[in-house]
C-alpha cells in the first residue's frame, strides 16, 4: 500500500484512501485519522470498512450506484439552495 501512495501514476483519490487506511495499523482512533487526513469520521469508517472487506482492491474501485441514482440527493433544487439568514 505504501507503494501506491508513492507511485506518481496512482490516482489521487486512491492515494487519499490509502492514507486513510494506512494509519489503521497504528491503532489510531477514527477521529485521529480523520484529523490527520482532513476528512470526516464517517469517511474514515467507510474506507476502513471497504478495506477490511475487499483489501486494496476495495480502495481502487468506486462503489456503484443503481442506474439513475444521483450522488447529490433528490435533485430538488429547493433543497439545495443556500439562503443566508
Structure report:
The protein is mainly alpha-helical. The protein has one domain (2-62). It is built from six helices and no strands. It has helices spanning 2-6, 12-21, 30-37, 41-54, 56-60, 77-80. It is globular and about 40 Å long. The model has no long low-confidence stretch (mean pLDDT 79).
Write a brief structural summary:
This protein is an all-alpha fold.
The helix count comes to 6
User: Uncertain spans, ≥5 residues at pLDDT below 50?
Assistant: none
Radius of gyration, in Å, reads 16 Å
Topology pattern, helix = H, strand = E: HHHHHH
The residue-averaged pLDDT reads 79
The percent of residues in helical segments reads: 40-55%
Note the overall shape: globular
Overall number of structural domains: 1
Give short descriptive properties of this protein.
single chain
Helix-strand layout with pairing:
Blueprint: H1 2-6, H2 12-21, H3 30-37, H4 41-54, H5 56-60, H6 77-80
Helix pairs in contact: 3-4
Amino acid at each position: 500500500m505504501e507503494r501506491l501512495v508513492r507511485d506518481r501514476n496512482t490516482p489521487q483519490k486512491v492515494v487519499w484512501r490509502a492514507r486513510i487506511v494506512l494509519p489503521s495499523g497504528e491503532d489510531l482512533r477514527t477521529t485521529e485519522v480523520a484529523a490527520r487526513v482532513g476528512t470526516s469520521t464517517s469517511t474514515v469508517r467507510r474506507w476502513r470498512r471497504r478495506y477490511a472487506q475487499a483489501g486494496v482492491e476495495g480502495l481502487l474501485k468506486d462503489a456503484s450506484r443503481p442506474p439513475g441514482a444521483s450522488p447529490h440527493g433528490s435533485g430538488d433544487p429547493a433543497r439545495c439552495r443556500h439562503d443566508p439568514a
